[in-house]
Amino acid sequence: MKLFIFGYGYSARAIAQELAPDCDWIAATTRSEEKAAAMTAAGLRAFPFDGESPSTALKDALAEATHLLISIAPGAEGDPVLNCLREDLKRLPALCWIGYLSTVGVYGNHDGAWVDEDTECRPVSRRSVQRVAAEKDWQALASELNMPLGIYRLAGIYGPGRNQMIKLDAGTCRAINKPGQVFNRIHVADIGLAVAKAARLSHNGILNVVDDEPAAPQEVIYYCADLMGLPRPEEQSFEQADMSPMARSFYGENKRCSNIRLHELIGGILHYPTYREAFAHMWQTDSWRKKD
């Protein structure tokens, strides 16, 4: 396997680590020179990519890839990879699988009802509307190429270095209560588990990469506070809470996401089926503060 990743972020890194034993090489893009140096030191082939001007070296590496993973968000102008490399992607001789990291935000609001991969997308926020458009664009290309395409709709991502414990420790965590509101989550290690398995199998189709138990956000915060021996933050009502427009928009999408097909793919249980196992492990191993 020769894996090329557009956008070496938090989730893509976990996927790359899972797939490393299967790969002859892994190449990935970044906007940061500092991050590129760290990626090179870790044994990756790092390429700068600003979404507009791919280098000749990037195109040469891409031409060798057997597996392609897209982990860059679309913008108002569409998907940046397709915008500047669509024709190049049509001429990749060794490519046999494409993976696209999307979001469960594409489903929009379902007032707490269960949704699965066949549920109609009803995006609410602008970023979710852009995701739906990007999914369709990648599906069109995959259909043209007769290429397996896996679309992985991720729930709220957390893990070491990115979780509520950090805010609780800093005293900046708030418990927002919007009655009936629930979210799914997914630990970054389970993103790595799921998408790596999908790549090995050349999975084709849409998959919710979410945990087993959607829960209210304040429940997770209270569980973490109790684990850490800290006082629970005072509950604030959604209506009265001072929130950014982006933060408030997350509460406009209320649903429970099924992961039946995810379990079928991985053939077993997640590393962290719910937030309880995940936070208990991070607390016991003192790994909640760090990403490495």
Shape label: globular
Identify the quaternary structure here: single chain
Poorly predicted runs: none
CATH topology of the domain at 2-158 and 184-211 and 256-270: Rossmann fold
CATH hierarchy, class of the domain at 2-158 and 184-211 and 256-270: Alpha Beta
Q: Counting H and I runs of at least 4 residues, what is the number of helices?
A: 11
Estimated helix fraction: 25-40%
Radius of gyration: 19 Å
Strand content: 15-25%
The CATH superfamily of the domain at 2-158 and 184-211 and 256-270 is NAD(P)-binding Rossmann-like Domain
Protein name: Nucleoside-diphosphate-sugar epimerase
Keywords: NAD
InterPro entries: NAD(P)-bd_dom_sf (IPR036291)
Explain what the structure shows.
- Keywords: NAD.
- It comes from Cohaesibacter marisflavi.
- This is Nucleoside-diphosphate-sugar epimerase.
- The chain has 292 residues and is an alpha/beta fold.
- It has a domain of 200 residues: 3-Layer(aba) Sandwich (Rossmann fold).
- 38% of the residues lie in helices and 18% in strands.
- It has eleven helices and 13 strands.
- The strands form four sheets. Strands 3-2-1-4-5-7-11 form a seven-stranded parallel beta sheet, with helices on both faces.
- Strand 2, helix 2 and strand 3 form a beta-alpha-beta unit.
- Helix 1 packs across helix 7 and helix 8 runs parallel beside helix 11.
- It starts with a strand and ends in an 8-residue tail after the last helix.
